[in-house]
Amino acid sequence: MLEKVLRVNALYDFYQPLLTPKQQEYLNLYYLNDFSLGEIADRNQVTRQAVYDNLKRAESALETFEEKLGLFRKYKTRLTVISKMKSLAGHLDREESKQLDSFINELESLD
Amino acid sequence: MLEKVLRVNALYDFYQPLLTPKQQEYLNLYYLNDFSLGEIADRNQVTRQAVYDNLKRAESALETFEEKLGLFRKYKTRLTVISKMKSLAGHLDREESKQLDSFINELESLD
Q1: Which residues contact A26 (CB under 8 A, 6 or more apart)?
Q2: Angle made by CA atoms A58, A59, A65, in degrees to the nearest 5
Q3: Chain A residues close to B103, C-beta within 8 Å
Q4: DSSP calls for B28-89
Q5: What is the superkingdom listed in this entry's lineage (chains A, B) (predicted)?
Q6: Mean pLDDT over residues B69-84, rounded?
Q7: For a Cys-Cys bond, which of A7, A40, B15, B52 suits B65, CB 3.0-4.6 Å?
């Protein structure tokens, strides 16, 4: 279950803007704020089953976006490369190291 | 017009998988293969107006994806950073330069 929560959270970071407002709201409450299905149902005056179905559809939409665009997969690869670049920066002369670090910062600010 | 064609082409590179098969087909024929509206209409046995409306909707969908995810904007920024990294690599010692080049290749393969 933890693995599932972490994955939904990660995919949500990348694809949130592509979800409907309702999908965003339910995922937010359930995965990020630890509401139960029943609590979300009460709050929205719908059935627990309706909340469950909406959450499943939202999770499935996130996985479909990831299959199509692979943003999370690419992000993880970039993290690995950036980590190797940081290690290289540690072995360079002061000025070159500073330059590489600033480029790394620019790359990190895009993710 | 050229600017428009280049932008649609670029956005299409990033968001093609999110478009419907019909949107993909029309954009492909019109922007990448230089078919006219009339030729696409004949080929699909629909009106010229229907092709035009579908193309407009597809272009608008591409712009909406870019507003939401900014993949093309981030790509362009990454290109600039990578170009500065290549210049830095040219000033490093042989072994360090080789390492940085290989990291740059890994980053480039993700775009």
Answers
A1: A40, A51, A54, A55, A58
A2: 90
A3: 81, 84-85, 88
A4: IIIIIS---HHHHHHHHTS-HHHHHHHHHHHHHHHHHHHHHH-HHHHHHHHHHHHHHHHHHH
A5: Bacteria
A6: 97
A7: B15
Q: Which of A68, A81, A99 sits opposite B18 (nearest CB)?
A: A68
What is d(CA A100, CA B77) in angstroms, rounded to the nearest whole number?
Answer: 16
Structure tokens of B28? Answer: 């492909």
Matching residue, tokens 């590179």: B13
Instruction: Please choose, from the candidates B62, B28, B12, B22, the residue with its C-alpha nearest in 3D space to the C-alpha of residue B46.
Output: B22
Helices A71-89 and A2-15 sit at what angle, rounded to 10 degrees? 90
Which residue, chain included where needed, has tokens 């290109």?
A: B79
- Amino acid (one-letter) located at B70: G
Q: How many CB atoms lie within 10 A of CB A89?
A: 19
Residue in this structure with the two tokens 């943003």, named with its chain if needed: A71
Q: Which residues of B touch A91 (CB under 8 A)?
A: 96
pLDDT at A41 > cutoff 80:
yes
